[in-house]
Amino acid sequence: MAARKLETGTPELLGQIEEGVAVLTMNRPERRNALSADMLGALAEALRACETDKDVACVVLTGAGGAFCAGGDVKGMAEGKDSVSSEALDLDSRIHRQRISQRETSGRLHKMPKPTIAALPGAAAGAGFGLVLACDLRVAAENAVMTTAFMRVGFSGDYGGTYFLSQLVGTAKARELYFLSERIDMKEALRLGLVNWVVPADQLMSKTMEIARRIASGPRVAYRYMKENLNRAAAGEVDECLDLEATHHIHTGLTEDHKEAARAFVEKREPVFKGR
């Protein structure tokens, strides 16, 4: 079957379907693919379309320009521009909208009845790390890095990271990675089970597509129920975790510590947190 372009409505997300595999590429390389309202909306729509598209058996999520996704646009936040929306909304409306966004992106990657694969050409941080962990499988370039990052910007975390990380590495290690926000290289990520394969950078997409095509050529109905069985076997309810994350994430975005951290990020210095 010939390749088919997936229309996303924005240049910030590219999409293509070929041989049963949909490849979605976050495309803001000048911001290391930091999330924007347009990108998140397009990603939600694209995942929704892929979920029911009979030509799609597997979904690959990756980033352009040598990075996966830097998470929220901290530079935009420091400039007073919310990376997801600059319009004025009351607190409850902001929380509700973030709940919807998280369910339709991380939540759908995790719950859709088709295998999903994250391909990491480089850094995955914050919400970008959450999107990586939401996928069923992960392939990474040797030079990629991961970090929860939220401690460094005064946020509590979003896009499913706390849920998925706890499932993968256990609660004690998840707490360490959130509280300290240290960078994880791919040797350590492989040891922890955060990635499934680590390959040279120039082999990332060929290895990813090899796995994706193998899945796409497999038993689609069986994969659907394998994934449902595995998700049901995991402890806890993902939607409850996503909703709580959204509430706490929006609240922490209003703190002095977050605003200080955003300024420090732009000024290339360490933030001075005050606990308020």
Task: Please explain how this structure is put together.
It contains twelve helices and ten strands. The chain starts with a strand and ends in a 9-residue tail after the last helix. The model has no long low-confidence stretch (mean pLDDT 92). It has helices spanning 37-52, 74-78, 91-111, 127-134, 150-153, 161-169, 171-180, 186-192, 204-216, 220-233, 238-252, 256-267, and strands at 4-5, 13-18, 21-26, 58-63, 116-120, 124-125, 137-141, 145-147, 184-185, 197-199. It is globular, with a radius of gyration of 18 Å. The strands form two sheets. It has a seven-stranded mixed β-sheet, sandwiched between helices. A hairpin with a 2-residue loop joins strand 2 and strand 3. By secondary structure, the chain is of the alpha/beta class. It has one domain (4-202, 217-267): 2-enoyl-CoA Hydratase, Chain A, domain 1 (Alpha-Beta Complex), CATH 3.90.226.10. Helix 1 packs parallel to helix 3 (91-111) and helix 3 runs antiparallel to helix 11 (238-252).
Q: CATH first level: which class?
A: Alpha Beta
The major β-sheet equals: 7 strands, mixed
- Work out the radius of gyration: 18 Å
Mean pLDDT: 92
The strand order across the widest sheet is 1-2-3-4-5-7-10
The percent range for strand residues is 5-15%
In CATH terms, the superfamily is 2-enoyl-CoA Hydratase, Chain A, domain 1
Distance between the termini: 56 Å
CATH third-tier fold name: 2-enoyl-CoA Hydratase, Chain A, domain 1
The helix count comes to 12
Low-confidence stretches: none
Q: What is the H/E order? A: EEEHEHHEEHEEHHHEHEHHHH
Count of distinct strands: 10
